[in-house]
Amino acid sequence: MIVAVQLVAALLLALQASPAEPDPRRPAPTFDSAPPALPALARPAVLIVSKTNGYRHDSIAQAVPAIEAVVKARGWSSFATENAAVFNPRQLARFDVVVFASASGDIYTGAQREAFQAWIARGGGFVGLHSAGDGSHPDWFVRMRGNGRFIGHPGGADKFQAAKLIPTDRSHPATRHLSAIWPWTDEYYSWDAPPAADAHILLSLDETGMRLEPKLRMGDHALVWWRCEGRARIFYSALGHKAEAWSDPVHMRMVDGAIAWAARKDGMGCD
Predict the structure, then answer these.
(1) Whether the Cβ atoms of residue 167 and residue 203 lie closer than 8 Å to each other
(2) CB 254 within 8 A of CB 66
């Protein structure tokens, strides 16, 4: 009996001493110093960034090639990376649009942040997708995105809900293909404030009948919008948590239109 108790105690101590398995959805933050080698790029060129110093979505594996495909279908160039050292003046100058494919967290050194902000100030186009809208990003990025602080999304059995999305502007390149109601299932984000007064809302969530905690109800629940940061075209969509979103033709037409608008090849604004 004593031996058995000692064995159990030793096993418990060993388990306590063993390091926990790393969570692939919450990787340890890293910062990059050596820029990636870029291929030859014909213009327009799109930089796709999926680095995660915050929560990492499994669907990044589907999102990146899907974005590459819509860019290729336009005859444009793209480069996908998780190396934030690409945010330097020389390399950013080779791109017309930066797309955050569920990039999360504060991914920049001071110099990389300054390079990205300077590129935006010169009129670059930005498209933020899904977790580009979560609460892991620095304050300056939230201001550029143009809405409040992230406060959460439904969890448990209510995490993914079928809902009605309502286009509020079907003249924009990202939404002109949509019907009056777009049935969609996703993980729906909420923030503590609606988009800024200078934001142009394109798509809103109909909260009617949804299972939302009171704090997650926004009333006017915008999910997709655009705004100008000086001459820069800034677009954000909260959609795209699930892998299936990145093979859905309606969703991908929206992403394609957003990129075309951010590149100043379609639509109006920020001139």
Answers:
(1) yes
(2) no
Amino acid at 154: P
CATH number at residue 191: 3.40.50.880
One-letter amino acid identity for 118? A
Tell me if 198 is assigned to some domain: yes
- 3-class DSSP assignment, residue 186: strand
Residue 10 falls inside a structural domain? no
What is the spatial distance between Cα 175 and Cα 267, in angstroms, rounded to a whole number?
11
Contact call for residues 104 and 52 (beta carbons, < 8 A):
yes
Residue 268 forms beta bridges with which residues?
none
DSSP state of 247: G
- pLDDT tens digit string along 38-71? 999 999 999 999 999 999 999 999 999 999 999 9
What is the per-residue pLDDT across 25-34, written as a single tens digit (0 to 9) for each? 888 999 999 9
N-term to C-term CA, the chain: 81
Domain that holds residue 221: 40-262
User: Is residue 128 within 8 Å of 264, Cβ to Cβ?
Assistant: no
Give the span between the Cα atoms of 160 and 154, in whole angstroms.
8
